[in-house]
Description:
Helices cover 17% and strands 21% of the residues. It is built from ten helices and 19 strands. A four-stranded mixed sheet has the order 12-3-14-13. Strands 15-18-19 form a three-stranded antiparallel sheet.
Amino acid sequence: MARVHNWQLGREMTYTYDAAYPRAQFAFVFNINRCIACQSCTMACKSTWTFSKGQEHMWWANVETKPYGGYPMFWDMKILELLERANPDGQRWTGAPAGDPRGPWGRFEGQTIFEAPRMLTPDSARVLGYLPADDEWNSPNIYEDNPVGERGKPREYHRTGESLPEHKTWFFYLARICNHCQYPACLAACPRKAIYKRPEDGIVLIDQAECRGYRKCVEACPYKKSMYRGNTRVSEKCVACYPRVEGRDPESGGVPLETRCMAACIGQIRLQGLVRLNPDGTWAEDRQNPLYYLVHVAKVALPLYPQFGTEPNGYYIPPRWVPRPYLRQMFGPGVDAALERYEKPDRELTAVLQLFRRSNKIIFGYKVVEGPKVYEGTLRGRKVTVHDDTVIAYGRRGEELFRTKVEEPIHVRSSRHANSI
């Protein structure tokens, strides 16, 4: 077992292989506050990649309702329970969120899925995990829209449960795809070495000519995004629509495009791109890359279950109405500061949030052009000022992709269309 640095945990950890980092890394940010669970992303992926025989249960992209939903059923509850059994009451963070890129959220003192005692898994297992039963793959939308009420009072809504900052009756939608982790558990567990990270973009793929369907990847992935196909007897997973990312999709014209699930998003919750890496695996400073800005400058986007240790490259802006202890368990100790900045955005953050889903082309840089003040007032006791700034998005070669304003345009239709039906 090797020792590698995990910057999300703020420390070194044990991993199956020595560290080897791609030149750039596929990454994305999902703004949960905007997700409406329309499932457009889910069906866009399904109709593109998993519509064939043997893939009926494969939902590489899905949207589940928290706290009760999950696909496969209760995937996160089960792996969290295993970690707790392996290290009772030890999954804790020390220190405070800071500006250190090698440990921005403090230090995780617990055990990752690569470090947990082997007594919970077979002797041959390299990663702590479990293999879902067949019936756990049957219900991708289980408990959709089911809220949780006041603690200790089942089947009962709280009478004043809708007030901020934390609702007492709540649920939220969690959109998920493969995180294309820096330290993939699927890769670590595969006895055939059939799984690899591409050096050009860090996308994690399965070589199906090498795979023999042992399902060790299914067992090891804590997010359960590697899936076994019974009729071909090999595993499959999200491929990050790599022809689009490469600019080889027929509709791309040679320009890198966002994945199908990203491009189909109606709620405009998604921003996807590529980030450059330092030799030690941390993100290279790239101030004008919107992903770098959201994760390392504004610090409003957080990794999903960083305590697993895989260093996922999927980041989320947490839902602002959800009780904080639940969010801290899911996204780590950066939640409070992230929500504080999201609820009180400065001019730059307000502008960057307009980039989400304004184009299907991957954004490599941006610039904010200041505009006039359009609003000044108070919101829940704090002063709010809004400027109609323009944000310009740039492509891989520095070409302008589009520009958009903070103030969305209003179009007034002529009255002659009022009774046109």
